[in-house]
Amino acid sequence: MSKPTLIFITQVPFSRRDNERFGIEILSKHFQVRVLDCTPLIAPDYDKEYSQLFHQIAGAVRISTQEQLASTISCVKGGYFIDLVGMSARSLKIRKTLLRQNLKRIVLKSGALPTPKQNKNGRFARFWKNDKKLTTIVNRTQSLVANLMGYSYDSEADITVVTGLASIGKRASQCKQAIFAHTLDYDIFLRLKDERKSNLNYAVFLDQDLIHHSEYLYTGERRFLDEDRYYASLNMFFSAFESKTGMKVIVAAHPRSNYQLRPHLLFGRSAKEGVTAELVRDASIVFAHFSTCIGFAVLWRKPVVLLKTYQFDSNYSGDYVEKMSEELGAPVVDISSFTERKLLADLSEWSSIDRDKYKGYVDSYLKYPGSPEVPLWEQFAEGVLRGGRSKEPGDHLESLTGFGSGVS
Q1: What is the per-residue pLDDT across 243-281, written as a single tens digit (0 to 9) for each?
Q2: Which domains does the chain have, with CATH numbers?
Q3: What is the value of pTM for the model shown?
Q4: Fewer beta carbons under 10 A from the terminal one: N or C of the chain?
Q5: CA 184 – CA 13 distance, rounded (Å)
């Protein structure tokens, strides 16, 4: 008996990291796995800059035109596709093309963040806040129109992989079936939690590459931070912390950052890529803005201190830092105006955590309550092949915090 088809459709280059975190090896035991990298079609300018990240595996194809997409899947009749292409006019066309092949749409709700509330005026103000570049206006207009028409990333999914209470979303009632599981990061936690830990005493900073993040090229938005001021503020704060505590600060580099080309930005500090979970597991304290990797600190019960500068308040980032603080009970430090005296006074308070809030964070953003402690993709394969779990009235499918599109 032949295996059913399972297609990943992506809006950023399918990388070596994606091959591992999307469980391709595990899934290949149960499905004929294919990857359609639609970055050249959805975001050609972005693709020119980052196409070298594409990791070639059997069944992976880069899609440049709608015609190529239709031709590539013309022989596919039935199966499933995991939708990672977000919200835009092009992504809507891509979905329709796959649905015409009788493929069932799967939405993976992994990577939700605490989302601050905005009133209608705030949403429209943010809509026009940054660059008026044509690409920015087109991207935002497409997303806005799609939402005004009642469509969301959640809607019309045949199967939704729910990884926490907050990832259920406002239109969950349109989901036909659900698999209640945990996030990709929780999978990493399961794999590493019993490994031997380092005895070093250090702090870790969860870098988000806020200055050179690839999203700016993708969306056309301009960055909201001044490079020199941001990194100078980080350095002054970290230096003061190191002086008062004797602990070094290690930077857990964002996976798409490239500090090898810009080492001066970190003022000689060590930046490590691909080991964020391990760094958090073994750290004494975690510094961050509002990264999804804060989930690792929550799972390993590490104290979290949230950092911002005055420039965060001119952007949505300030709201996200404050919302994260509210969810975790974590302190916020404005590193553009801190004093060493206040730092010394605050240090004693940074060693504690709010266990109740940490537990609530796990349930909301990292692992659906009561879901099994097994690898995500094994649970996924079992759930899909048996048709997912049908919704019941008591399945908590009420309106909760929403979730952005795709997996970054």
Answers
A1: 999 999 999 988 877 777 677 777 888 889 899 999 999
A2: 5-183+367-390 (3.40.50), 189-364 (3.40.50)
A3: 0.86
A4: N
A5: 18
